[in-house]
Each structure stands twice: as C-alpha cells, then as structure tokens.
Design brief:
3 domains; alpha+beta; single chain; 4-stranded antiparallel sheet; Immunoglobulin-like; 243 residues; globular
Length: 243
C-alpha cells in the first residue's frame, strides 16, 4: 500500500535509505523512525497513511460498480466506489479498462464515502476491472457486473493477479456464440494446459488457473502465455508465475 501511494522510485529509495541509515543499521528502530524517513523522501506528511493502514483494527470494505454506454462517437465509462465500513479510508484505486484498441490502466483517488468518476474513450469498451493487481488491503465487491453483457468484439483480458502464486483468473468475452480454445504455453511455446475448450454462448466468462499443467503437476516459476482462439479471433496475454 505504501509503495502504491509514494510510487516505485520513491518506495525503493526509502528501502535503500532505511537499511543504510547509521541511526538504524544493526540497531533498534520503531514505526515513527521509519515514518519520518518515508516522509523525508516523499516530501509530504504520511501520518494519515500510517494511522489508517497500520493502527486501525477495522477492515476496508468497498462496493463498486461500472456503467458503459456510447454517446455519439465516443464511449463512456462511469465507475462508482462506496466504502461500507464505519470510518473512511484514503487510497488510490486502480481501474483497468479493456478497449478494442488495448488496455488502459488508471488510478483514481478515493477518500469519501461515495466517489464517482467519468472516463471517455475513442474505442469501444469491453471490460472494466477494479484493483486488478490486488494493491488494496481490503474487500472489494462488484455490485453490478457486465458478465451478462455482450461485448462488441471477442477479447481476452489480462489475467489477475499478475504475477501470481499459484492461482490467477482470466476473463474473456464473446460477441457471438463460438468454439473457444483457451490454452497456456510456456516460454518455449510448448502447450502446458488447456483451460477451456468447446462451444460458448455470447457473453463474458471467468476461468481460473492454478499454475498446474494438464496432468495436475505444479509448474515452475516463469513466463507463460495464455492464448484465446474464438472463431477468427486470436488473442494472447503474457503471465508471470512466481513460486
């Protein structure tokens, strides 16, 4: 969570500073010491972050929904997030929007009971995912889902989480009924697992993979590729398994 708030460059510099600081190296340090060093590198107060995410005993529970519609020549997405627990948390929330032109990742800052954001795209929107890489420490519940909607083209979303160990989920969608073949290949191009095969109706589907081959044997850490063939559509995504 801290890494996502301050950014990768600052976060890893904080770790280097902390381990090299002669005040703490091979000595005793407490939370306030670490926070002070984080704030010095970040350039802003982080009291709100450490108070909410380190000392509170309750758990974040947020509900979210998305609505997609076309208006003229553009495609609109409205996402809403509502915090259900008694006291509010503050956090950046990632949304992954899959369009016909590719994947768009955006971070939205949430610090109120209910927040709404409006996004506009030039290409048709195929799928919307909240916190796809699981940065948030808490529960996320999708109130409304587009899994029954018919996407304008067949698509294969990026697996989530990614990297993963040992389980991940892949989402794909079909514009019309088609014969589906969803397979996983290793970095050498060898087939290791078939996740879906056969006729599917139009709609959006989730398929889980546990990082094992078709014989049930756990695969090694490494890069794998998931490939969807549906009618004339052929789409691939790169996945990282980390044991």
């Amino acid at each position: 969570m801290l890494r996502h708030v301050v950014g990768d460059e600052t976060f890893f510099q904080i770790l280097r500073d902390y381990t090299a600081d002669p005040r703490y190296r091979f000595k005793v340090a407490d939370t306030d010491d670490f926070r002070a060093l984080c704030e010095a590198r970040h350039g802003k107060s982080l009291e709100w972050f450490f108070t909410e995410w380190l000392t509170r005993e309750d758990r974040l529970a947020c509900n979210w929904t998305s609505t997609t519609y076309r208006l003229g020549d553009v495609f609109n997405v409205t996402v809403a997030i509502e915090q259900a627990q008694a006291d509010l948390y503050t956090m950046p929330v990632d949304f992954r929007i899959v369009t016909a032109a590719g994947v768009v990742d955006t971070a939205l800052w949430v610090d109120d009971r209910r927040e709404e954001y409006h996004l506009v795209f030039a290409d048709s929107v195929l799928d919307v995912a909240c916190d796809p890489d699981h940065w948030i420490l808490g529960d996320r519940n999708e109130i409304t889902t587009d899994t029954s909607a018919i996407p304008p083209v067949a698509f294969l979303d990026q697996n989530f989480p990614n990297p993963f160990n040992p389980r991940t989920t892949l989402r794909f969608g079909l514009r019309e009924p088609a014969h589906v073949l969803l397979q996983v290949f290793d970095a050498r191009g060898a087939l290791v697992a078939t996740l879906a095969r056969g006729e599917r109706t139009a709609g959006v589907f989730d398929v889980a993979w546990n990082g094992a081959d078709d014989r049930g044997r756990a695969l090694r850490s490494g890069i794998y590729f998931c490939r969807l063939r549906a009618g004339t559509r052929d789409v691939s995504r790169k996945m990282i398994l980390m044991r």
